[in-house]
Amino acid sequence: MLSSFMLAAEPQQQFETAVAAYQQGDYHKAAQIWQALALEGNTKAQFELAKLYSMGQGVEQDALQAAYWLEQAASNSTDFAESFRAQQDIASGLQQHKSQQAGVVAEALPAAVPDTSTVKTADAVSSAAADSAVAQASAKPTAAKPPELAVLALTEANFDIGMRAFQRQRYDEAYSHWYPLAQAGEVDAQFNLAAMYANGYGIQTDDTEAAHWFSQAAEQGMAQAQYQLAVAHANGKGLAQDDALAVYWYRKAAEQQYVLAQYNLGFMYANGRGVTQDDASALLWYERAAAQGDVDAQYIVAERYQSGRGAPADINQAIGWYQRALEQGHARAGYQLAHYYLRGQGVAKNESRAFDLFSRAASQGLIEAQRELGISYSIGRGVRNNDSKAVAALEAACNGRDATACYYLAVHLSEGRGVKTDEARAALLFEQAAEAGDMEAQFRLGVLLSQGDSGVVDEAAAFDWFKRAAAQGHAEAQYLTALRLANGTGTEQNDAEAVKWYQRAAEQGVVFAQYNLGFMYGAGRGVAQDDEKALYWYSKVAATGDADAQFNLGLRYETGKGVRQDDKQAVKWYQKAADQGHQRALAYLGYMYEKGYGVSMDERKAFDLYQQSLSARVPRALTALGLFYKNGRQVKADDKKAAELFLQAAEQGYANAQYNLGWMYEYGRGVSKDLAKARDWYQRAAEQSEPLAQAQLSRLLNP
């Protein structure tokens, strides 16, 4: 078999040697070096190898191998731009290759193709009869051409001598030994001859001849040849592109435990290429490759058990496969395991273990892990808080275009944690993360713009960012979006839209949103007036201990608005709010004690509660307290004090206070006697249908 050779130089020197070979057109040598480095985990070499497989330079063009190595590199790269450029290079090279070829050449598969097809139940093409039908339907490669170089007689040909010649790059000599052996049916010679035609070793590259000899070896049962023939069918290289035949030969090789064929067969089922899309069959073949130690297959199997694709979700299976991939150094497997430990899902919660796994994946250059490492240092999750280390990790992830990392870095910059405060850069990073779709950054940017922390107040822009975060489900942003719509701040006033966003925030438990939603239903703003729904939301807020909601609930029980009137329930909720120092609740509770509604009458307690509520200037309490002073109940009579209290309530339009103030002016109690003012206050009270004021006014006007 043909083989690659490891050079004795350092990796960087090897890489540079490969670059030089590539620039000189020696793609085969470059491929050999990059292949060896790629297998050792060298990310740059993996990118370059992916390009070679995509363009068929120095190796046989193989879209699945290109996808494999691109995914390997992308999962380990710390340089987003490098990954993006590599993909662009591949796409550009393919386009150029297609334009130069008359035949159809399949484009390289993306590094991680999502399985978006609808899952359908279908029989897998696996029976001997089905295989036979596919094989008979295939167009056999053309017969072998006459030898292009001098060849030996069969009796003189020797496979091992040919191999030694090949290793010394004496390709014509290797060809002279292998060609007659291949013609005679020796499978290893057929395979190596195919490789020479595929890669242009000593002869002109000829995909058709390569396909012919791969086919000859494949028909004899060589798994590696079957795999290569499948790749040729999948890519349409040397013969017609045919996914069904690719599946046929992948299966032949896979059934011989050829791990790459098993992986690729799983890929074909996962994506419905050459066979009906079937997640169960995809999982079966991926799992067989995983069992043989293919680290990428192990990761894919773990993902599928995690999401329940191809089999019922099984957290233990997922964790097991992630663990096996981690043992081979798969960065993303460690990252996924860290989240299980962070949540305590399927394993005992262990933030310290999660931190260790994030740290390991971050050291391998995984951007998401760098972000989580930074967050861990920032909030002391599984490790002692260290703001400077948090900033370093977040900076690395932000440079890799991770929006969430940029958000957390901006928080540190704005608060001066682990780094010198830099509001300008913080604002830029918040905006960068917000533009990338990070909802926390969108919310924070809205706050900055609404408060002027960014250097300027821009309510319209603030509303836009709040709404974008709200659309992603940010509860507090939903509340602030609703509040601005209700008040017309930064946008047109729109009660109906406000109700919609209050509803969403309320359902996520935002107390202010629940309270305001109760208000909107109670007032009929943006929605049909509905006391029962208002009561429902006030009750939810009251149950959280919110004093305003407790007071409103008490008021509804006292008045019977939206609920059956119940003085005892009114007293209960007034008391809960009063215990938190709610001034209006103190005033209303005082009234209940004064009248004996829902509680035993207690004028002394009522007086004390009224006194405690004075700063709220509740008209009912002011008037009642004025009467206490006027009549000398629970306190020494003081007409002047009484008149002052009546005036405070009267100026707020409270009819009973207006009547009492008029009476004080009529009789000169606590104020100078003034019939004109008396008539004026009686008039105001009478217009509100105060019966005593109407009687007094009638008497004054009709002496």
TrEMBL record:
InterPro entries: Sel1-like, Sel1_AlgK, TPR-like_helical_dom_sf. SMART domains: SEL1 (SM00671). This is Sel1 repeat family protein. It comes from the Bacteria.
